[in-house]
Amino acid sequence: RSRILEGQNAPDVLVNVKTGAIVLNGQQNPRIDATTGTVEHWRFVNASASRYYALRLDGHPFHVIASDGGRLNRPAAVDELVPVPGERAEVLVAVERAATMALVTE
Q: 3-class SS at 4?
């Protein structure tokens, strides 16, 4: 298994109302392990009322397969994903080699 995601800002990114910290599935500094040669299916939700996030995965593309508008006819490869407040997006991430990748947001 390879470590595919590690970092302070990382799929369902939220801001903790009490602390203002950016969290993923309720955790700061989350980590996701995935097997090399597999495809991960992630769902992002921008649950912020007014904050935008520009999400990138260490130079690896996201393959967007669905959004609030429904499923796409075919996956769309993007280097950056910017879900607006209240928006959801579903992406595929191909784990092609063993590596540690950081999901970063600006």
A: strand
